[in-house]
Design brief:
With 292 residues, the chain is an alpha/beta fold. 37% of the residues lie in helices and 13% in strands. It has helices at 45-55, 73-82, 98-106, 131-145, 155-160, 162-167, 189-199, 210-213, 222-231, 254-264, 268-283; strands at 17-21, 59-63, 86-90, 109-115, 148-152, 172-174, 204-207, 236-238. The longest helix has 16 residues, at 268-283.
């Protein structure tokens, strides 16, 4: 058996955007909206900044953690702290009107997240908004304010809904490498369909490899990663999922994951495109960043 890819500290020559991170603060200052499905860590903005600086990350995309539900106070406060260094992905239900979304966008929230990821007992994860809310209620408003929909779901579930998702005419970002099942193999129709959507420019995919490698190792994910990069590097976004909640085993560090990406993607132009230029396009960071 081949040795597992070693993950070392990277040395980067350009800016880097981590497109999927979370912050958790003191619940007395920022109360949870719902009973958490896991033990939330204490990982405030200061910890995120320290982690990013240590890893060589210049910009981040904050994704609303599920315990906070629709209460965006913490993500809005963190966006103020980080300023031009950050953008956000929030959560809203069907009661949120165009004016509310426009206000959020002014504060740096670039999209909303919708979840079809069931808990082990079959229930919905607390604090999430289902994909149906996007399809039946929020799609027109998101389109009007030019925000995107982020989908966290098993790939099979997303594909079942794809025709309706496509009709929404809203940019789609898929969490965690699209949620494919690596045990099904590279040639499985579901993964091949994901590659087809990517080639067509119909979806953006976050390369959060740690969420697909659990229990099987990073080298097992390498062929899938390579296939995604080959399919359409212009629709890929690098991501870590810091601070790695609900992670089985010892979590990686952001620096290690960035080094792994550099080991797998050696072309300097491809790296710059995925690590910086694509986030500039998708999340609305300053266009000048893409010229680095």
């Amino acid at each position: 058996m081949a040795a597992e890819t070693r993950i070392n500290q990277p040395v980067l020559e350009h800016g880097v955007c981590d497109c999927h991170v979370h912050v958790f603060d003191d619940p007395r200052a920022f109360p949870f909206e719902t009973t958490p499905a896991y033990a939330p860590p204490f990982s405030p903005a200061s910890a995120l900044i320290t982690n990013a600086d240590q890893a060589g990350v210049s910009h981040v995309v904050l994704v609303q953690p599920t315990p906070y539900g629709r209460n965006l106070d913490l993500i809005r406060a963190t966006l103020k702290v980080l300023g031009s260094r950050a953008r956000g992905v929030g959560v809203a239900d069907a009661s949120c009107a165009v004016e509310g979304l426009a206000a959020l966008k002014e504060e740096g929230v670039s999209g909303l997240r919708f979840v079809e990821n069931l808990m082990p007992d079959g229930s919905r994860m607390p604090g999430t908004v289902p994909l149906d809310t996007f399809l039946q209620k929020l799609a027109p408003a998101l389109a009007e304010v030019r925000m995107h929909a982020e989908v966290w779901a098993p790939l099979s579930v997303m594909l079942e809904q794809w025709r309706a998702v496509e009709k929404a005419k809203v940019p789609i970002v898929l969490d965690h490498m699209g949620g494919f099942d690596p045990q099904l193999g590279l040639g499985h129709p579901h993964f091949q369909r994901l590659l087809g959507l990517l080639r067509d420019g119909a979806v953006w995919v976050k390369l959060a490899v740690c969420r697909r490698a659990a229990g099987i190792g990073y080298d097992a994910i390498r062929p899938f990663h390579d296939a995604l990069v080959e399919a359409n590097s212009e629709r890929l976004l690098w991501a870590t999922d810091f601070p790695f909640v609900r992670f089985a085993g010892t979590p990686p560090t952001s620096a290690q994951l960035l080094a792994l990406f550099e080991a797998w993607v050696t072309d300097s132009e491809l790296k710059k495109r995925i690590l910086l230029r694509n986030p500039v396009e998708r999340y609305g960071f300053e266009a000048s960043l893409a010229q680095r």
